[in-house]
Write a structure and sequence with these properties.
This protein has 130 residues and is an alpha/beta fold. Strand 3, helix 1 and strand 4 form a beta-alpha-beta unit.
């Protein structure tokens, strides 16, 4: 049997063909704004993840899930980023965020079901950056 060795540092690796070096752990955020109902609690989790070496976060336009669908999670991440950057905790280029578009239209700028055409994908990406 292979021995498991614990590392003191979270490994990073090159993301696809890009120059981005992301943590091997991508932290999920889908309950920030529903089950995690206080923005400051999400901040504490984000801070702990960054301290552990995570620099890669996953979100989506429909997050949070379960109830209160749409946009809250991305807004909280943006607020946290702005606050921590202004405090000098890290630079914007140190953090990577992946988002998703969903065909149900929940959380999307254009309400109602849609496909993954250029117009809808572009609108969803731009809304994620707000």
């Amino acid at each position: 049997a292979e021995k498991i060795v614990r590392s003191d540092v979270l490994p990073v690796e090159k993301f696809g063909g890009s120059n981005m070096m992301v943590s091997k752990v991508c932290a999920g955020t889908m309950t920030w704004g529903s089950f995690v109902d206080k923005e400051e609690d999400a901040y504490a989790q984000l801070d702990a993840l960054v301290e552990a070496g995570v620099n890669f976060f996953d979100t989506a336009e429909l997050y949070p899930v379960a109830f209160k669908y749409g946009k809250t999670t991305e807004q909280w991440i943006g607020n946290w980023l702005q606050k921590r950057i202004s405090e000098g905790k890290f630079q914007r280029e140190d953090i990577y965020i992946a988002t998703k578009c969903n065909p149900s239209g929940v959380g999307a700028p254009k309400k109602g079901k849609h496909g993954f055409d250029v117009e809808n994908l572009t609108a969803s990406c731009k809304a994620s950056l707000e």
